[in-house]
Amino acid sequence: MPNTHLVILKKCYLDKILDGSKPVELRLLKAACAPYGAVAIGDKLFLKQSSGPVCAVARVSSFQEYNNLTPAKIKQLKSIYNHLVFGTDEYWEMKADSKYAIFIWMKDVKNIKPVMIDKKDWRAWAVLNSKNDFGLLGSADVID
């Protein structure tokens, strides 16, 4: 059964996903935490603007994970994928000491009626379940 995820995005990246110019979401991580190791093809993504509402959904069409990264390997990933993820030079420099990466290809991206949720933690990615769903999994306002 597919998982459902809450993905927090800066507005500039969310806008690019919604207009179709950014088909891939990247997370560079120092530890092997979600979404690394937690994403599968067919998973549902709720897309939330940072400090804003959940305003879109998407499905995972493909993903690629990397581990044991070094600054040199991250530089290589930038040269291969940056045209799909739109990372700034500052972003890549800030993440140069990451050990894990996951590139997530999205399909079926759709706007939904904006939903404000009560999320107070700093996680930029959460795997949702019945005990931790921010009211999204059972909401009649959210399309499937």
What can you see in these coordinates?
With 144 residues, the chain is an alpha+beta fold. The protein has one domain: Hypothetical protein (Archaeosine Trna-guanine Transglycosylase, Chain: A, domain 4, Roll). 20% of the residues lie in helices and 35% in strands. The chain contains three helices and six strands. A six-stranded mixed beta sheet has the order 2-5-4-3-1-6. Strand 3 and strand 4 form a beta hairpin. It is globular, with a radius of gyration of 15 Å. The mean pLDDT is 94.
Order of helices and strands: EHEEEHHEE
| CATH C-level | Mainly Beta
CATH superfamily: Hypothetical protein
The parts where pLDDT drops under 50 for at least 5 residues are none
Just name the CATH architecture.
Roll
| Topology, number of strands | 6
| Measured distance between first and last alpha carbons | 14 Å
Mean pLDDT equals 94
Q: Looking across the biggest beta sheet, what order are the strands in?
A: 2-5-4-3-1-6
Give the overall form. Answer: globular
Structural Rg: 15 Å
The biggest beta sheet is recorded as: 6 strands, mixed
Task: Give helix % range.
Answer: 10-25%
Number of domains: 1
Tally of helical runs: 3
CATH topology heading? Archaeosine Trna-guanine Transglycosylase, Chain: A, domain 4
Content-based structural category = alpha+beta
Query: Which band does the percent of strand residues land in?
Result: 35-45%
